[in-house]
Amino acid sequence: MSMDISVFHSYGLLISEESASIILSHMLPIWKAEKPELYDRFSEADVFLNFGDYLNSHYDASFYGNADHLSCYRICDHEFSEQETGDYFYFLDLNRSPSLFRPAYTDFREIIQEVKSKIGEILPPDFPFEEYLLEILGETWG
């Protein structure tokens, strides 16, 4: 019997059911007036996977599921994060990650600017970046 083990380590924006709800709360009134097809598509009760697929196709967010072990650390202070990812989540990877010899970014504001350049048009002005910009380490066994 063989077992496949995959390990991942990424830096980026967590799109969980909670953060998707923050984004949709901001965007649904806008879409209702400007893009009724998106409003209709995402105004139903349980739309997380559908919204995640939209983020994947329009903003290059990656889908993660079935992680057997997952650790998350806030990028802003390197503290362990208590974010609930559920059974699956989406993640918008940053363009750079740190190396042994140099940091990837000079400060946290630079990371926020990168994320805003990718997905800022749908984020609310008061989006809590400190809570959702994470370093994630995970394993899947199968």
Structure summarized in a few sentences:
By secondary structure, this protein is α+β, with helices and mostly antiparallel strands. The protein is 37% helix and 25% strand. It has helices at 17-34, 36-42, 48-59, 108-119, 129-132; strands spanning 5-15, 62-65, 69-74, 88-93, 133-141.
Quote the distance from N terminus to C terminus: 11 Å
Mean pLDDT: 90
Largest sheet: 5 strands, antiparallel
The helix-and-strand class reads: alpha+beta
> Based on CA inertia axes, which overall geometry fits?
globular
Number of strands: 5
Helix content: 25-40%
SSE order, one letter for each helix or strand: EHHHEEEHHE
Q: β content, as a range?
A: 25-35%
**Helix segment tally:** 5
Oligomer: single chain
The largest beta-sheet arranges its strands as: 2-4-1-5-3
The radius of gyration is 16 Å
Poorly predicted runs = none
